[in-house]
Amino acid sequence: MQVYREAYTSDHAINMEHAKVEGLSDKDLETILLLCMILSDTTHLTNFGTAQLWPIYIWLANYTKYAHGDPLNYALFHLRYLPKIPDLVKKFYQEKYGKPPTEDVL
């Protein structure tokens, strides 16, 4: 029985690491697989009004989950902020495809 506690102990991470190591011509080189988790969620910028941004964050999954829980470890990085998609884009999509865009499309 395998217990999953960290991202770097998952079957997918272990299989990726083995595939990369097997493909190396020099087997004596030390290799490190850098696992990244990318996430985003909407953020309101003001208490009044509709100003919003979509921040994109990167987590390094090579850190233990206990390090992710401590903000002093700086395990989460801001990659970029995306502005909210204007209604003009939604209108263009509806005219082209005949239906409004879903959340998955946006």
Defining key terms:
106 residues, alpha+beta, 2 domains, 4-stranded antiparallel β-sheet, elongated
- Provide the gyration radius in Å: 20 Å
Helix content: 25-40%
Poorly predicted regions? none
> What is the terminal separation in angstroms?
40 Å
Counted beta strands = 4
Spatial shape = elongated
Mean pLDDT: 83
Organism: Moniliophthora roreri (strain MCA 2997)
Keywords: Ribonucleoprotein, Ribosomal protein
Protein name: Ubiquitin and ribosomal protein s27a
Pfam family, one: Plavaka
Describe the structure.
The protein folds into two domains: about 1-35; about 35-105, no CATH class. It is built from three helices and four strands. It is of the alpha+beta class and about 110 residues long. The mean pLDDT is about 85. It has helices spanning about 10-20, 65-70, 85-95, and strands at about 35-40, 45, 50-60, 75-85. Strand 2 and strand 3 (about 50-60) form a beta hairpin. Strands 1, 2, 3 and 4 form a four-stranded antiparallel beta sheet that branches. It starts with 10 loop residues before the first helix and ends in a 9-residue tail after the last helix.
What is the element layout, followed by pairings?
Elements: H1 11-22, E1 36-40, E2 43-44, E3 52-60, H2 65-68, E4 76-83, H3 87-97
Task: Give a brief outline of the structure.
This protein is 25% helix and 23% strand. It is α+β, with helices and mostly antiparallel strands and 106 residues long.
